[in-house]
Amino acid sequence: MVNAIEVEVKTTIGQICATQEWEIGGLEVMPDHIHLFVSTPPTIAPTEIVGRIKSITAIVAFKMFPNLKRRKFWSSGMWSKGYYVGTAGSVSADIIKKYIENQKHI
Predict the structure, then answer these.
(1) Integer distance in angstroms from the first to the last C-alpha of the chain?
(2) Whether 52 contacts 16, CB under 8 Å
(3) I need a surface site. Which of 12, 60, 90, 102 has the fewest CB within 10 A?
(4) Could you tell me the pTM of the whole model?
(5) Tens digit of each residue's pLDDT, the chain (106 residues)
(6) CATH number of the domain that 61 lies in?
C-alpha cells in the first residue's frame, strides 16, 4: 500500500505542476517527507507552491485511500505545517537532481 500511495502522490504532484506550468527537476517521496526540485516563475511565492501541493495531495490521497486517515492520521492532516525551501544558488541543477534521486539509496 505504501508504494500505491507514493505513486499517487508523485502523480498528483506531477499533475499540479503541469497544470500550473511549473517544471519538476526532481521528485522523491520518502516515508516522512518529500524532496521536490521545481522551477516556477519568480512571481509565485514559495508558500503558495507548498500550500497548493500539500492541500491537493492530501485531498487526493485521503479520497483514494480512505483508510489512510483512519489508520495513520486520525484527526490530523497529512502534512505538517513546516517546510524547507531553498534556492539552487551556486549549486548546479544537476547536483540537486542527483541528490534527490539518491535519497532512497542512502
Answers:
(1) 22
(2) yes
(3) 90
(4) 0.82
(5) 558 989 999 999 999 999 999 999 999 998 888 999 999 999 999 999 999 999 999 999 989 988 887 666 655 677 888 888 887 777 788 888 888 888 877 6
(6) 3.30.70.1290
